[in-house]
Amino acid sequence: MAQGSGSSARLGVLLGILLYLLAAKPIFAAEYKVVFNYFKERHNVAVLTKEGYDSCTAPSGSIVYQTGHDEIRLDPGQSYFICTTPGHCENGMKIAINASDSN
């Protein structure tokens, strides 16, 4: 289980590197917040289904965060995130996070 401050696990993106440290399928408790820090001029964070994650495609209507500091609450189960800047997801700027039910 990842340790966080309060109910927030902080996951940073620096210099265009998106969470390579978590490529080993991290597990968090549901209700945690994942915090993405990144250069908003170069990146974003899209919340997708597994299909969108696998294909690196954000369908119309997808939630896309663009503030450079996004706090996203995890629901139980898998959550999928990518950067939609062309070529970024295809080159590994994506992460799937498994949130366990805290009950």
Automatic annotation (TrEMBL):
Any one cellular-component term (Gene Ontology): plasma membrane
Signal peptide: 1-29
Keyword Signal: yes
InterPro entries hit by this protein: BlueCu_1_BS, Cupredoxin, Phytocyanin-like, Phytocyanin_dom
Lineage of source species: Eukaryota, Viridiplantae, Streptophyta, Embryophyta, Tracheophyta
Keyword Nucleotide-binding found: no
Domain Phytocyanin intervals: 1-101
This protein's name: Phytocyanin domain-containing protein
Superkingdom of this protein's organism: Eukaryota
Family annotation (Pfam families): Cu_bind_like
Keywords, alphabetical: Copper, Metal-binding, Signal
Gene Ontology molecular function: electron transfer activity; metal ion binding
Transmembrane segments: none
